[in-house]
Amino acid sequence: MANIKNLKKDINYVLGDIIEAVYLYEMTTTGKPSAETNALIDEAIVAFDSLIAKVNAKKVENKKAHFSQINKDLEETANQLVAKINAL
User: Fold this and answer.
1) How far apart are alpha carbons 22 and 62 in whole angstroms?
2) How far apart are the first and last CA of the chain?
3) Cα–Cα distance measured from residue 75 to residue 15, given in angstroms and rounded to the nearest whole number
4) Which of 18, 37, 46, 70 makes the best surface tag, with the fewest CB within 10 Å?
5) What are phi and psi of 78, to 5 degrees?
């Protein structure tokens, strides 16, 4: 089950990097959190929890398709969050 382990690491690293980018934005602009940046961080945490719950789901019929879909969901979520960061 190395693939599941790697998928969990990917989720953690990708969303962690996005949160770190929000913190860097805060430090380089105002120096303190704003409502918009807090909302982005909260959205990233919710996405993390959701994706990890999907990975940990036990009753899945086609595991390969299930994990492939999770990987696609991670990519879509990350792209959306990065677009929101760029729009700040």
Assistant:
1) 36
2) 39
3) 10
4) 46
5) -65, -45
Average pLDDT over residues 51-79: 91
3-state secondary structure of 88: coil
Residue 36 CB neighbour total at 10 angstroms: 15
Report DSSP letters for 22-64, one per residue.
Answer: HHHHHHHTTSS--HHHHHHHHHHHHHHHHHHHHHT----S-HH
67 in Cβ contact with 7 (< 8 Å): yes
pLDDT in tens, 9-31: 999 999 999 999 999 998 998 88
Task: Please check whether residue 14 is in contact with residue 78, taking contact to mean a CB–CB distance below 8 angstroms.
Answer: yes
The residue count of the chain comes to 88
The domain ranges of the chain are: 2-87
- The token pair at 31 is 């120096």
